[in-house]
Amino acid sequence: MTSLLTITGASRIVERFDDPALDRTGTLVIGADGRVADPAGDAEVLDTEVLDAEGGIVTPGLVNAHHHLLQSGFRTLPGTRGVAMREWLPAMAAAYAAAGIDASLVGATAGVGVAESLLCGVTTVADHQLNWPNPASSSDPVGDTVAIARAVAEAAAHLGARLVFVRGSARDAPEVAAASAEAIVHALLPSSSRTASTNGTTADGMLQLAVGPAGVHSDSEETFRALGEVARRFGLRRRTQANEQVDTEIALERYGRRPLDLLEEWGWLEPGVTIAHLCDVTDTEITRLAAAGVTATHAPGCDVPMGWGIAPVRRLREEGIEVGLGTSGGGSNDAGHLLADARLAMQVSGLVGTTLAARDVLTMATSGGAAGLGRADLGILSPGAAGDACVWDVSGVADAGVADPVAGLLWAHPGRRPRHVVVAGRVVIRDYRLVTADESALVSALNARLAR
């Protein structure tokens, strides 16, 4: 076997966070196909690159299962901190309108957001793009949306990250949303990737497409059904948001029913659907979610500081629901640091039930999020899995005295970042710095686009 990369010198290699019995020492070899090789294999290994992990531990790359990359250009805006969601939504919409949503804007915000993610150990980003140019002001509204999707995909590809691009909707006309989603599929996915077995993922696994209305608070039954039909035709995953503060309020006001009642009626409580947030759910609703076969995404870095609630993650997982972890966007979280949000999830879990263990939350931040994407090859380092890995230094004073370095990833050293990050066997972060782009250039490009 010809290897692409060998990681040596680590004190521990974590194959998967949900099974500590698989932790080991030795080397991690990633083959030329970008996948983890069997450590027991006896084939000839011709190393093309060696990455030194001395003083560190190696883990799977993190999976940010719910991000809004556009918001990376709109952090800490006046009128958006600690306010009700009814106030936050129009404040953000006004900022987007003032900047003018187009391919140049989303390309710049995606460049910054994806680079930040890689620097924090995130190797897969699910970007729920909800905001689009006004169709009435364009001669080619569908073409504009394709250009936006392409700009995000190109930014991620340039930086070397895996991207899940979710063609979202926030009050879009159903026919416009569906036509746009279909055009994006034809533009970005080869025909061989448009089947149920691929989950809308390219052969190299670097790009995946999905669809997802923002929620019942903003999108109609017709939009949910139209995007659902596109998903069925092309084998795409479906993703939406439910049971945050404003979502429940508006559903009760407008329909006299709770959000999950509507999602079930509209055909969105079934396998292949992932629901983010779920702060306000009853035990009965949790049982319904589990029976429906949906997955969930927890976003405490958004919901907790904004006062929008805390999802009962332990209860969800006890019912057998796969739960991932997401940062949500910079308009509510201000950071794309998934490990920091994992720490927060662990710390606040006791406020809504039994405290979560560090490995439980790290599982959510890796294979839990991957499960919602239909990607069993992500978030683990088992033989044959995607060669996405992080090297975390645990040799400094912040980790001194730590008995369990895996638990210490969350309990110790707030703000921790990885020393090295690898995606598909390619080193994209080396010694805490981007390899694939110039960080200052990304910042300058976004500032110039925003005229700041």
Structure notes:
The chain is of the alpha/beta class. 37% of the residues lie in helices and 18% in strands. The protein has 14 helices and 17 strands. The strands form three sheets. It has an eight-stranded parallel sheet. A six-stranded mixed sheet has the order 2-5-14-15-16-17, covered by helices on one side. The protein has a three-stranded mixed sheet with strand order 3-1-4, with no helix packed on it. A hairpin with a 2-residue loop joins strand 15 and strand 16.
Keywords summarizing the entry:
17 strands; TIM Barrel; globular
Q: What's the count of strands?
A: 17
Q: Looking at CATH, which topology of the largest domain would you report?
A: TIM Barrel
| Proportion of residues in extended strands | 15-25%
As laid out across the biggest beta sheet, the strand order is 6-7-8-9-10-11-12-13
Average pLDDT figure: 95
| Total individual domains | 2
Oligomer: single chain
Instruction: Evaluate the radius of gyration.
Output: 21 Å
Low-confidence stretches: none
Largest sheet composition: 8 strands, parallel
| Percent of residues in helices | 25-40%
CATH H-level name of the largest domain... which superfamily?
Metal-dependent hydrolases
CA-CA gap between termini: 51 Å
Shape: globular
The number of helical runs is 14
Q: What is the top-level CATH class of the largest domain?
A: Alpha Beta
Gross CATH architecture of the largest domain: Alpha-Beta Barrel
Supply the helix-strand structural class: alpha/beta
